[in-house]
């Protein structure tokens, strides 16, 4: 990576608005002119009350929804004018996702779930890619569990598989939507510690939506949305 690339923000939003039901009497604007930059390798918490626009913002960042107006540059490339195929390709190449409910395929083994993003891009998994996926399962504490299906794993173990799946293609950014929200306290702490360790070891940027103030304080930066506007943006102690 050259100096110009390293100085380019990972994410740069400028005057982003998002409305639903455009042109109808029920038209509602959810995001109101949002400006936001996130640098490469940051570990960011995103908080806010229900209805504040967190999910909408995360969907826009994840190229799952289009903004109504504004600019969104991802790794220096404006994504506003990409067609659906371009958005899908950009999403697969650049982003990893972890959700509150792991969304593992029940008929697939842990290893097959982890390698799913590879299959979606390349159509098959070669020996090197399979070995990398096995190494990731080992990193997340699931060595020897590669042949187990989700129903044979605990909730915390399933979320570890989902995390390995999110980073198998070494994306520069992982978006995590309440990744510990469906876990007990012990499993929640373990999964969050794993997020932090992978961030430290691989330099992957994370944006983590959470309602847990304690977890948010363990992130490096805290963003808070209120009524579709950025209410707070501060570094944590």
Compact overview of the structure:
This protein has 237 residues and is α/β, with parallel strands linked by helices.
Class per helix and strand makeup? alpha/beta
- The end-to-end distance, rounded to whole angstroms, is 30 Å
CATH superfamily annotation: P-loop containing nucleotide triphosphate hydrolases
Q: Strands of the biggest beta sheet: in what spatial order?
A: 6-7-8-3-9-10
> What's the CATH first level?
Alpha Beta
CATH fold-level name: Rossmann fold
**Which segments are poorly predicted (pLDDT under 50) over 5 or more consecutive residues?**
1-5
Question: H/E element string?
Answer: HEEEHEEHEHHHHEHEHEE
Mean pLDDT: 87
| Tally of contiguous helical segments | 9
**Oligomeric state, counting identical vs distinct chains:** single chain
Just name the CATH architecture.
Answer: 3-Layer(aba) Sandwich
Largest sheet: 6 strands, mixed
The tally of structural domains comes to: 1
Radius of gyration: 18 Å
Overall shape: it is: globular
Number of strands: 10
Strand composition percent: 25-35%
* Percent in helix: 25-40%
What does this structure look like?
The protein is α/β, with parallel strands linked by helices and 237 residues long. The chain has one domain (40-66, 81-235): Rossmann fold, CATH 3.40.50.300. It has nine helices and ten strands. It has a six-stranded mixed beta sheet with strand order 6-7-8-3-9-10, with helices on both faces. A four-stranded antiparallel beta sheet has the order 2-1-4-5, with helices on one face. The longest helix is centred in the last third of the chain and has 18 residues, at 185-202. It is globular and about 55 Å long. The relative contact order is 0.18. Residues 1-5 have low confidence and may be disordered.
């Amino acid at each position: 990576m050259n100096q110009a690339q390293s100085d380019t923000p990972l994410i740069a939003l400028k005057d982003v608005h998002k409305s639903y039901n455009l042109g109808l009497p029920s038209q509602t604007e959810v995001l109101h002119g949002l400006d936001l930059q996130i640098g490469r390798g940051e570990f960011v918490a995103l908080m806010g009350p229900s209805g504040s626009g967190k999910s909408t913002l995360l969907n826009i960042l994840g190229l799952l929804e289009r903004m109504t107006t504004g600019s969104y540059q991802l790794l220096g490339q404006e994504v506003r004018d990409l067609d659906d195929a371009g958005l899908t390709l950009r999403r697969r190449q650049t982003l990893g996702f972890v959700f509150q409910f792991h969304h593992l395929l029940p008929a697939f083994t842990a290893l097959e779930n982890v390698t799913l993003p590879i299959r979606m891009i390349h159509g098959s998994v070669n020996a090197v890619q399979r070995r990398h996926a096995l190494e990731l399962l080992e990193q997340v504490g699931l060595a020897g569990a590669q042949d187990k299906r989700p129903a044979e794993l605990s909730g915390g173990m399933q979320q570890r598989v989902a995390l390995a799946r999110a980073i198998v293609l070494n994306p520069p950014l992982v978006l995590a939507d309440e990744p510990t929200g469906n876990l007990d306290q012990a499993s929640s702490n373990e999964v969050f510690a794993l997020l932090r360790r992978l961030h430290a070891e691989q330099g992957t940027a994370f944006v983590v939506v959470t309602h847990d103030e304690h977890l948010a304080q363990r992130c490096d930066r805290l963003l808070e949305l209120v009524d579709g506007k950025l209410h707070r943006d501060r570094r944590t102690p």
